[in-house]
Amino acid sequence: MSEFDYDLAVLGGGSAGYAAARTTAAAGWNTIVVEGGPEIGGLCILRGCMPTKALLYAADVLHLARHAATWGITTDPVTFDFARVMARKRAMIEDFASYRRQQLTGGKFAFHRATATFTDPHTVQLSTGERIRARHFLLATGSVVASPPLPHLRDIGYLTSDDALELTALPESLIVLGGGAVGVEFAQFFQRFGVAVTLIQRGETILRDFDTDAALETEKVLRREGMTVLTNTRLLDARREGGRKIVTFEHDGARREVAAAEILFALGRTPNTASLGLAHAGVVLDGARIVSNARMQTSAPHIYAGGDCTGPYEIVHIAIQQGEIAAHNLLHPDRPRAIDYRLLTSVVFTDPQVASVGLTEKAARAANLPYLTASYPFNDHGKSLIMEAKDGFVKLLAHPVTGEILGGGCVGPMGGELIHEIIVAMAARMTVHELAAVPHYHPTLAEIWTYPAEELADKIKLRKR
Prior knowledge:
Elements: E1 6-11, H1 15-26, E2 31-35, H2 43-47, H3 49-66, H4 82-105, E3 110-113, E4 116-120, E5 123-126, E6 131-139, E7 143-145, H5 151-156, H6 161-164, E8 173-177, H7 181-192, E9 196-200, H8 212-224, E10 228-230, E11 233-241, E12 244-251, E13 254-260, E14 262-265, E15 269-271, E16 285-286, E17 289-290, E18 303-305, H9 316-331, E19 345-348, E20 353-358, H10 361-366, E21 372-377, H11 382-387, E22 393-398, E23 405-412, H12 415-427, H13 432-437, H14 450-459
Parallel strand pairs: 1-2, 1-6, 2-3, 6-18, 8-9, 8-14, 9-10
Antiparallel strand pairs: 4-5, 5-6, 7-15, 11-12, 12-13, 16-17, 19-20, 20-23, 21-22, 22-23
């Protein structure tokens, strides 16, 4: 009899965990998934990608209906039923979640509902009282909402992104703390549904992971829609006065206060690792984050990690890739694979959408990498003029000698879709010369990429072979 109950125990049934479990189970490994969350499905399905995008699309439809006169269409008055908006979101998420439950409980591998804590490198104690011994582990426990920086926020109460997805009524006014993707997406959703929104961001611009030109273009649109956007701030305090919640902060060196009916705390998430007892397993942490190498292996050689608990990016398709790579390396240690972030893609589903792949100018300058760049605006592009979607631009970064495409950025209509053309081009290591030569149908949004590609191709003269 084996000293181990399982070949692989996966802690966490989200995207990374499921990807690993289905891979090892298909290869014949005796696999178990242990899920300790109150619901099954993972962050993306339950409280992340899917529910937020369902709400943002509803906000887009509402916005278009209110501006239908632009195309000669009368819709006045445009109203909405918030309860029905949320009911549709719940129904859609239940469909997605039920499918994931079926995948997890379908018998391809064992599945237990419990939290797990390591007692030694090969053993976990479950909250159900059972103990599991496994030859290998995959840690995929996800993330939780980070603690607020102001202690008084806990006293007066606030909404998290999880809470915002379950609201039954809209607040009259809202302070959004944080200008990352989550904060900005929720801020525009609430603003378009009639909530007076003030967004407070610590950095010089919102969306700090994107280039400054993309962030400033997005800020311009948010302000035009009536939102108050305050950057370069430092939070000082929070208190309640009657039915109002007040946040005190420094803005450009001056002390200011903003009051609203509610506060949305959107200052990020932290890896969900506190209860795992990783010291007993020999797994090294960086803060709360599990340290793993490019093969997704932790400091304990038999333990791998994937998804938000190890990072460095909290993106669902990255989590799936990490889970699959970990599983491959467990199954085939003689021919390991490594995760490659060259095609790292980010999308913010505001209107206009913000997207990037590969190098940004910020990242290229920080790494002292040579590049040339060119951009083209949507306000001079046929299809976007037809759509009255004139905000934003596309941008390409290319190697100044070879012309290889190093990165792409888009702020504009359907930016999250358009960026995939550059993902494909970069996956094939295309040059701007090759992209410029690809036929594009007219009039389409996608043909806008040909303009910066042609400009860069003219600047980069390739040597004849």
